[in-house]
Structure prediction request, 182 residues.
Amino acid sequence: MKLAEAILGNPELIGQVAQGLGLGRRDAHAGLEALLPGVARGLHRNAERPGGLESLLGALRSGRHDRYLDQPETLSEPSARVDGNAILGHIFGSKDVSRNLAGRAAQSSGVDGEVLKKMLPMVAAMAMGALSKQQRDGDLAEREARPAPGGLPGLDVLGSFLDADGDGSVMDDVLGLAKKFF
Prediction:
């Protein structure tokens, strides 16, 4: 399962985000659709940095991120926001990057930027949850040691998870999936 499909294809997650932020389902979906490519790119770029992939895989092994997908109601817990903000800090390194992402997403989705700033930690938590489930189910673990182009083990699996059609961009994958639902 791909990242966009794991999140945008899960009506329970969309409903939980909508409820937690006081949005309609359509606005929650639009916000997720607009934020997800930036988070996916951030995860991928972070994994490409020296030690980044090892750090990501370590976080997946030691964290319980899969609970965000298995039990969507946990996204409303304060610990989920703390976890999501920590993930964002790790992948973006600066709150300014997160704010810029939320601003661009507001322009493309029509959802208020302040709401998207609140949604962003949820998106980060869900993305790590999807990666965690992928690893738990064996898709990442089985191929983790296989070198990707450039010699980084496991990066080919992460890249393929984030980029469904292998064209180097996650944006078209998220938009294509969204068209299936609306």
